[in-house]
Design goal:
By secondary structure, the protein is of the alpha+beta class. The strands form four sheets. The chain has a six-stranded mixed sheet with strand order 1-3-2-6-4-5. Strands 11, 12, 13, 15, 16 and 19 form a six-stranded antiparallel sheet that branches. A four-stranded antiparallel sheet has the order 7-10-8-9. The longest helix is centred in the first third of the chain and has 78 residues. The N and C termini lie far apart (123 Å).
Length: 449
């Protein structure tokens, strides 16, 4: 093995070449396998030891020097430490004395402690870097989440603005329609009897639809036919319609406050949706949708039946915003009107959102009743106009809420032309109507509608 030349000669000549090796069994990483240095014959081992410590960047005295298994005395020369030095011929052959180096126990402990400290520092640095990256990642996630929330809020504002604009356009359109319909001349609305009165009704409706800029179907949905004696003819309610006879003429086309007869065709058409048969659930229920508030589409027959009866008993033409069917099997299973023929469709208003939520979730609780005395019963109105007069929940925006209720005759506490009060589980809130005032309410006609 080629030995590494460690340094220039140590001490004064003559010099002796020495091979420096790590001691057997010691750590081998602090010293190359073999290094060569020159030491003065007169120099003490302490000079070599100091040189070894300096070269290996060790504290002074951190190394032990040995020869043939014996520690060397720092204060003595090589010869005094009983080291046989090769003669000239042997030196020419490359022979030299070998000095072994080992670390002292104190130095090994120091280095081990330093290594452990360095490893701890590296681990702390690794953890700090990992924490920094996690913090950066979380900061980036928060930035993205904040950006998404901002974008969502912006989109919601835009959607709200668009809905408000659409609602404003709709209200303006309805107000314009209502204004035209309210100002129709009597000669256009009044129809005398002729054998062709049906054709005349259609012609008048077409002309009215043209003036109000609405479709013929929309016009038919808004009109009510009132006889000369003030009775209502429900021609456009669907189902079993009532047509005027010769004795009912003249008839008047009314756009505005109207009334419908309880147990009349419009009422019967609505009651058909509440009827329960083999499934012991209302005919209109959709079991697949489960419990909850089921939004009805304005094109559905159920929506038309609810809105027709509600509008017909309200006394003025509202703008219906939504109709929700209330499906609650647990509450309905206790309803005493299941399979009862002749259910009455009535109305109930409550003045707060918590009360409304309680009715939707728990039904009508007679124990919560205050009107008429504690536990008196559930109050329902025959006409929506009574509930609307001050008993419905109204949002700050002006949107009103009213329940359309299926009412049994199983336990009647009170009944008069305006109200019916029934016992526990004798009324079920089947629909929730949300509506608002139209921009213009048509004035009452001379027929009182």
């Amino acid at each position: 093995m080629n030995a590494e030349r460690w340094s220039e000669a140590l001490g004064d000549p003559p010099h002796v070449p020495l091979r420096i090796r790590p001691a057997s069994g010691s750590r081998q990483d602090f010293l190359p396998d073999a290094c060569v240095t020159l030491l003065s014959r007169k120099a003490t081992v302490g000079l070599l030891k100091a040189h070894v410590c300096k070269t290996l960047e060790l504290p002074l005295g951190a190394a032990n020097l040995m020869h043939e298994g014996k520690d060397l005395d720092d204060s003595k020369t090589l010869t005094e430490n009983s080291i046989t030095l090769p003669g000239p011929a042997a030196r020419r052959r490359g022979e030299m004395a070998e000095i072994f180096v080992d670390l002292t126990y104190v130095e090994m402990v120091r280095q081990q402690t330093a290594l452990q400290h360095a490893q701890e520092m590296m681990e702390q640095a690794r953890k700090a870097e990992e924490a920094r990256k996690i913090a950066e990642l979380r900061a980036e996630e928060k930035r993205i989440a904040d950006l998404l929330r901002w974008e969502q809020t912006r989109m919601q504002r835009e959607e709200t603005l668009q809905r408000a604009q659409a609602q404003k356009l709709l209200e303006d359109k309805e107000a314009a329609e209502a204004e035209v319909l309210a100002s129709l001349p009597m000669e256009l609305r009044r129809i005398e009897y002729t054998v062709d009165w049906g054709i005349i009704v259609e012609q008048r409706l077409r002309e009215i639809a043209r003036q109000a800029a609405i479709s013929l179907q929309e016009c038919a949905n808004k009109v009510s036919i009132v006889t000369g004696r003030g009775a209502l003819i429900e021609m456009f309610a669907g189902g079993d319609t009532v047509v005027p006879t010769k004795q009912d003429f003249p008839i008047v086309l009314v756009f505005g406050p109207v009334t419908v007869q309880v147990q009349g065709p419009t009422h019967q058409q609505l009651a058909a949706f509440a009827r329960s048969e083999t499934t012991l659930l209302p005919m209109c229920w959709e079991e697949a949708k489960g419990d909850g508030r089921i939004m009805l589409h304005s094109s559905e027959a159920e929506f038309s039946a609810v809105s027709a009866y509600f509008r017909g008993t309200l006394g003025w033409l509202p703008a219906i915003v939504s109709i929700e069917r209330i499906q609650n099997k647990h509450v309905y299973s206790k309803f005493k009107g299941i399979n009862e023929s002749g259910l009455t469709m009535m109305f109930h208003g409550c003045r707060s959102q918590p009360n409304e939520d309680s009715i939707v979730n728990n039904g009508f609780l007679v124990s919560k009743c205050r009107s008429g005395g504690s536990n008196f019963g559930t109050w329902c109105a025959y006409a929506a106009s009574y509930s609307d007069s001050g008993f419905v929940f109204q949002e700050s925006s002006g949107l009103k809420h009213i329940f359309v209720v299926a009412v049994s005759r199983a336990n009647i506490k009170m009944d008069n032309p305006t109200m019916r009060v029934v016992g526990q589980n004798c009324a079920y809130p089947l629909w929730l109507v949300k509506y608002r005032s139209s921009a213009t309410r048509p004035s009452r006609s001379r027929y009182g509608y």
